[in-house]
Specification:
Blueprint (H helix, E strand, L loop, with lengths): L2 H5 L5 H10 L16 H11 L1 H4 L8
Length: 62
């Protein structure tokens, strides 16, 4: 799902980058997975906790 469809706004790549940069994000990705990563905790978060940020699933087809 795109930003535009999810939030009903339209941003160019440059505008999106400026918004993310303002929030302290960067384009960089770590070269490897962290040694301290807890895969079980990540799966638990994916199954429920992240819904507070993402919201409930929309109707079918969105």
């Amino acid at each position: 799902m795109s930003i535009g469809r999810l939030f009903h706004v339209s941003y160019m790549v440059k505008g999106t980058w400026l918004l993310l940069k303002r929030r302290g994000w960067s384009w960089q990705q770590p070269p490897r997975r962290a040694v301290e990563r807890d895969d079980v905790a990540v799966e638990v978060w994916k199954e429920g906790s992240h819904r507070a940020f993402v919201g409930p699933p929309g109707p079918a087809g969105q």
